[in-house]
């Protein structure tokens, strides 16, 4: 059985998600991912373009160039393609496309862009293939293409009642030149887009058959773990590997750029091997501790460069009688996707084959090619399913390790990270400090806003910052939506020896909190209702207002909450979408208890309401884990946080009831993977402010008696 | 050392050190990768399997401690090579529960165990019974609905 599985994996190695079938139980015929019939031999099938293949049995296979990490894009992109193609949904399968920059351009998934950027090109791809099928049918039937229509994977000639299946047309259609500008379907004719559609990957995931990066198995494969420096920047000075080499199952120990790799028969032997390694480290910053991070932020915050200046905030603040000043601080955060990181690499015959759950096949190719000094064409990436990404898998450090290990081992090696490696591995959401001052006019309405931000830059590691500003660190503040006449925003990039990376919703994850919570503090100072203040200041922002009103209505804003509870509101625009949330909160055993969240989103055109709802729940839970628990700690240069016992996350028992409202819109699609994360922390903190009268100035939330 | 173990109704022979956790025996020696690794320290329950019908952390159970007690993994929950699913799996599909899906085999194994002991659980009993299983994607709401659905026989 094992051998057979290996062969199947190898045979389909470039077929992306065909790996699903290969590693399931080998007894009997495997189930396809959709609800269609099992795949048939596909000798006369053909590709109509890079994304669409049709087989003689009418099975339509979509190759999805972006990464499915749980957010549902494999299904949503398939819906868009199938809509324009008029494909029968029951016959649709989807798989990750192989890495191929010529066919797919950049294959990177982040910034909630898959549907936003794919909406137009995927419709066009589907429509082009449809036109080719119609042209093939016209030729075969001897009628004009204009007399033909398409439905459910068939071309129909209504006048004669004749029908041809896509499966019998595809070979001829593939020889027809694609049209330059195919006509796109009118939205009124959509039967898939906008309709709640079950995910194509559900069944494989529920059966335990879906193959993730960590599940990849190849013939003769070894498994490696890497011991990385306990302090960022440290290097091994002396390695005693005698005891490690004596561990049963350990095959080799090699030094790579990031540390010392133990290569073994399997995970367990690699783990025992690494525990037996004795490494003396040198270098690294031993002075870093958690309080030191806060100090660095505080030292930098007043020394920023200007990001935005409207009116004269300093003068207005100086003259105001009602004003407020507060500091908001957030810690470094790990992504902690449920599936720890891994990459399986085989370097052979001048080729590098990689199987991994990556958000960026493109950078994976470039990184491997650079390490091995081979041309990018010699690197092949098979993207597997991934057990969460949240931005972590758009960094390629774990792939780099695996490539170096596989080069040394000369056989296929899966290099895996333990959970501790993951939590201690850097690439964190940056810590941040915002100092905000606000002034009210005589009637209690905000008229000045000064926000000074200090946060270590993510982008500085990738290239020089434009005018000294990391755009991700100030997002949500540089575009502060409120109609306040005097606004001043600055940004400082404090030097800290901690690697940072994009974390679900990036700068908005902290800036929505500081902005929205401070606005409630100002509303309170002015004796105003938080909804009234937002209504007034967002008078010319219809999409903000639309979601705000929808969430407030759902939450019955203005009616009293149950005894001991209070509600808070927040609204934020990010990644092309607008989200408002209301949270109802109480205090139980000295900690916030979130009972209910009402979430309204305007993400423009709705593709799959089911996954949008799921992404709202997902973003809320992710943001709630950070607001209630998330913090990476440092002591003596070492990271003290390591696993879910000291990096806790929201569990079933902490889960609020979540109601999601999808606001109708005809605007082009916005993102949905990230925009639900930013508003939850301020919605909860605003509820706590209403409940206790005390603001929350540091995350994660610690209530004081 | 050689061990004879009973997994999903089949007796399998493996070579392993006595301390090797069942999780890695299943995944790396038997190729049963449906059982997932999430933390390695009994914090997340992604590795939940049933040992003699009781839910267990595969990451904390050394092979030597299991003996010949029967082990059921997610692959053994369905029958007929995945054609006939367990009622809990059917409910998971009906409600489209998974997002990334990594934690779901463990969630499903925990839910099956919960329903075995408490056939018609309240929300509070589900919270308690499932609190050990972490999901980073936030599928908890749908998991709760799916457990109620399975408890009612798929309605």
How would you summarize this macromolecular structure in one to three sentences?
Chain A contains 20 helices and 27 strands. Chain A has 705 residues and is α+β, with helices and mostly antiparallel strands.
Fold and architecture overview:
- The complex is a heterodimer of chains A (705) and B (155).
- Chain A is of the alpha+beta class and 705 residues long.
- Chain A folds into three domains: 31-206, Aldehyde oxidase/xanthine dehydrogenase, molybdopterin binding domain (Aldehyde Oxidoreductase, domain 4); 213-283 and 341-416, Aldehyde oxidase/xanthine dehydrogenase, molybdopterin binding domain (Aldehyde Oxidoreductase, domain 4, 2-Layer Sandwich); 290-333 and 427-692, 2-Layer Sandwich (Aldehyde Oxidoreductase, domain 4), CATH 3.30.365.10.
- Chain A contains 20 helices and 27 strands.
- In chain A, helix 5 (114-141) crosses helix 6 (166-173) and helix 16 (508-525) runs parallel beside helix 20 (680-692).
- Chain B has seven helices and five strands.
- In chain B, the strands form two sheets. A three-stranded antiparallel beta sheet of chain B has the order 4-3-5.
- In chain B, a hairpin with a 2-residue loop joins strand 3 (48-51) and strand 4 (54-57).
- In chain B, helix 4 packs across helix 7.
- The radius of gyration of chain B is 15 Å and the shape is globular.
- Chain B starts with a strand and ends with a helix.
- In chain B, 59% of the residues are buried.
- Chains A and B meet through helix 7, helix 9 and helix 19 of A and helix 1, helix 3, helix 4, helix 5 and helix 6 of B.
Would you spell out the secondary-structure blueprint of this structure?
The complex is a heterodimer of chains A (705) and B (155).
Chain A: H1 2-11, H2 19-22, E1 46-47, E2 52-54, E3 60-64, H3 73-85, E4 92-96, H4 101-104, H5 114-141, E5 148-151, E6 154-157, E7 162-165, H6 166-173, H7 202-206, E8 222-228, E9 235-240, H8 242-245, E10 250-256, E11 259-264, H9 267-276, E12 278-282, H10 290-300, E13 305-310, H11 313-319, E14 322-330, E15 342-348, E16 351-356, H12 361-372, E17 379-383, H13 397-409, E18 413-416, H14 419-423, E19 432-440, E20 446-454, H15 471-474, E21 486-492, H16 508-525, H17 530-537, H18 542-554, E22 566-574, E23 577-588, E24 591-602, H19 609-628, E25 634-635, E26 638-639, E27 657-662, H20 680-692
Parallel strand pairs in A: 3-4, 8-18, 16-17, 20-21, 24-27
Antiparallel strand pairs in A: 1-2, 2-3, 5-6, 6-7, 8-11, 9-12, 10-11, 13-21, 14-19, 15-16, 15-18, 19-20, 22-23, 23-24, 25-26
Helix pairs in contact in A: 3-5, 5-6, 12-13, 16-20
Chain B: E1 2-7, E2 10-15, H1 22-29, E3 48-51, E4 54-57, H2 63-66, E5 71-72, H3 74-77, H4 87-94, H5 104-117, H6 123-130, H7 140-151
Antiparallel strand pairs in B: 1-2, 3-4, 3-5
Helix pairs in contact in B: 4-7
